[in-house]
Amino acid sequence: MILSKINTCKSGLMLMLLFVGFNQTKAGNEVAASDSVKPAVRYWQSSIGLSNPSYRDFATSPLFYRGVGFNISTGWLKRSAKKERLFDMLLSVAPMSATIPASNYLKRAVTSTFAQMSLRYVQLYEIKSLSQHKNKYKAGFALHATQNFRMNRFLQNNAAGVENVSNVMLTGQVMRDVSRSSEKKVNLLFFKPTLKPVKRDLRFQLNVGVLNFNYRPGYAFAYEGYLTSNTSPLLWILNNYSWSLNGWRTQGELELFTYLEGGNARSWTYVWSAMHIPGKFENFQMAMHQIKYTVFFQRTKKKS
Fold first, then answer.
1. Residue 129: C-alpha distances to residues 12, 40, 141, 264 (Å)
2. Residues 142 and 103: beta-carbon distance below 8 Å
3. pLDDT tens digits, residue range 69-119?
4. What are the residue boundaries of the structural domains of the chain, listed by start?
5. CATH of domain 2-299
6. Minimal CA–CA distance to 59: which of 228, 260, 222?
7. DSSP codes joined into one string, 234-277
8. Which long-range contacts (CB under 8 A, 24 or more apart) does 191-196 make?
9. Contact at 8 Å (CB) between 31 and 196?
10. Is 44:76 a contact under the CB 8 Å cutoff?
């Protein structure tokens, strides 16, 4: 099991390095530092990264499942000094294994496959009273919808597990200009490279759920509704599901954003998220760590 995790991690790192190398050859030199981002800059963004999810679903098992996988995403960003708008889509897949105490009676090799699809829309507005030359503050809201899929053959009738989590979130962001305004020589003993001026921003964003909806089953996933002549397969499977308004969800992002020559950009991002979903009867708990490398391609507004 450990070897499979290591191989998965190695494969993910190789994909990230190939992705970074491909874009580094096209990026060119970084631009010199400037005072601020141009108004209403539009980007199409694409990212790849590694994920480390963990979850526990009391509708099937009290065990924690953990794993290492990969994530890909794409989206559109419109950013100016006063406003910011983002829409993105993310897919994350990871092999999981259960955390089980040593036992002579229970098998320790309990594995699962986990997949997550997310859609997110974020709208932010500048807080003028707090913003300064180096630090820019914004606040707003986010709409976040997530669909989880799990497959665990060791649970037999409960092998397939799904739930939807949809949230209205309050969002706060602080962005600090960490540009290098002049050339800097670094002494590394055998060679002394010269670092060129570069425009960079360090961004931290926090999203906190205020309306937390979830679509979950009842006591267990293995529930079969009544069969009638008008019953469709999907409605029969989801017969025990219902919407609830409870629980909590939070997400934090730390991103180093670098502007490139020609208007494009790139970034490294660390994302941490957690959720607790009581549903109607049984709780679902989940946390995820992600590292993403993103490239931003500037888009020009079409003339009417």
1. 43, 21, 19, 30
2. no
3. 999 999 999 999 899 999 999 999 999 998 887 777 666 668 889 999 999
4. 2-299
5. 2.40.128.100
6. 222
7. HHHHTTT-EEEE--EEEEEEEEEEEEBTTS-EEEEEEEEEEEEE
8. 196/29, 196/30, 196/32
9. no
10. yes
